[in-house]
């Protein structure tokens, strides 16, 4: 019996990372929405008009009740803009609110520091348990709690890591990005005793599994302090919640296959605005 892989983190580094040639990188800022409600307008203005680490930022907002279709439309549009110099994709959900004005610089610097291709902010769910949507895949699948997260390195990775899309930064300069997509997994099973079970898995875990199957290492971080807004705010920078560990677990998962190719031409263009540095 072999030992299970453990979490790993990058070596400690200076607070300030020299971005150097990374200043020439351009960001597609994907802003999915539903119901025209947005909590993070001020942080978005800071990202576009405040401190910059990207040479240009292109915000694109799309309002839709079809979550995966909305995400895929924004993703395909970003792929279509790569010939025009777009190098990175950042998704920010409308209810995720960064606290500091240089949050985008912090996230970009952390990606450069660790050499990540995919970097996701740890975000708690909207309940009192303190459970996050960042998890370790397996039998059973286990989600991190905020109490557990605060005991881990600020930024970490694992071979079976599942990340979320609430604040998801992706480097678009490799071919694997054309073989991946967002999808929600749903399944109904019938047991021997005749009872039925309903299973649903979110687009972020499916995206994570596809990325890992394509050989991409995933990273999670609490470098960017943020709040997930619902009935009230749920923060990612302190230990809180009724649960110290995920006691529920999941013994069954839903498998999806990588796409042969994602054709950017199928996407209806969202509203696009370019801001040069």
Biggest sheet, in brief?
9 strands, mixed
Cα-atom Rg, whole angstroms?
18 Å
Quote the average pLDDT. Answer: 86
Low-pLDDT regions = 251-256, 259-277
Strand content: 25-35%
List the total number of helices.
5
Please count the beta strands (DSSP E, at least 2 residues each): 17
User: Can you tell me the overall shape?
Assistant: globular
Class of secondary structure makeup:
alpha+beta
Count of structural domains: 1
CATH topology: Spore Coat Polysaccharide Biosynthesis Protein SpsA, Chain A
Percent of residues in helices comes to: 10-25%
- What is the CATH C level class, in words? Alpha Beta
The CATH architecture can be named as Alpha-Beta Complex
Order of helices and strands: EHEHEEHEEEHEEEEEHEEEEE
The span between the termini is: 54 Å
Descriptive keywords:
277 residues, alpha+beta, Spore Coat Polysaccharide Biosynthesis Protein SpsA, Chain A, nine-stranded mixed β-sheet, three-stranded antiparallel β-sheet, 5 helices, 17 strands, globular, disordered C terminus
Describe the protein's topology.
Elements: E1 26-33, H1 41-49, E2 56-63, H2 67-80, E3 88-92, E4 96-98, H3 103-114, E5 118-121, E6 131-136, E7 142-145, H4 146-149, E8 155-157, E9 161-162, E10 167-171, E11 185-190, E12 196-201, H5 203-213, E13 218-221, E14 226-229, E15 233-235, E16 271-272, E17 275-276
Parallel strand pairs: 1-2, 1-3, 5-13
Antiparallel strand pairs: 2-16, 2-17, 3-10, 4-14, 5-10, 6-7, 6-9, 8-13, 11-12, 14-15
């Amino acid at each position: 019996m072999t030992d299970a892989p453990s979490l790993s983190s990058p070596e400690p580094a200076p607070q300030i990372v020299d971005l150097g040639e990374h200043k020439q990188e351009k960001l597609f800022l994907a802003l999915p929405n539903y119901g025209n409600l947005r909590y993070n307008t001020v942080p978005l203005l800071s990202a576009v008009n405040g401190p910059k680490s990207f040479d240009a930022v292109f915000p694109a907002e799309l309002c839709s009740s079809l979550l995966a279709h909305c995400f895929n439309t924004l993703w395909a549009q970003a792929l279509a803009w790569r010939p025009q110099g777009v190098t990175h994709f950042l998704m920010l959900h409308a209810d995720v609110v960064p606290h500091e004005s240089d949050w985008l610089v912090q996230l970009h610097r952390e990606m450069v520091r660790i050499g990540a291709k995919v970097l996701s902010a740890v975000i708690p769910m909207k309940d009192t348990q303190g459970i996050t949507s960042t998890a370790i895949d397996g039998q059973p699948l286990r989600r991190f709690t905020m109490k557990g997260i605060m005991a881990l390195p600020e930024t970490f990775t694992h071979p079976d890591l599942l990340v979320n899309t609430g604040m998801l930064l992706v480097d678009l300069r490799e071919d694997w990005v054309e073989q991946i997509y967002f999808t929600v997994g749903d399944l109904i099973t019938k047991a021997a005793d005749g009872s039925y079970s309903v299973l649903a898995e979110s687009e972020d875990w499916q995206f994570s599994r596809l990325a890992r199957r394509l050989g991409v290492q995933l990273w999670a971080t609490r470098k960017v302090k943020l709040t997930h807004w619902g009935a009230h705010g749920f923060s990612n920078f302190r230990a809180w919640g009724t649960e110290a560990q995920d006691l529920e677990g999941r013994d069954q998962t839903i498998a999806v296959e990588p796409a042969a190719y994602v054709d950017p031409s199928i996407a209806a263009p969202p509203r696009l605005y370019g801001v040069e540095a």
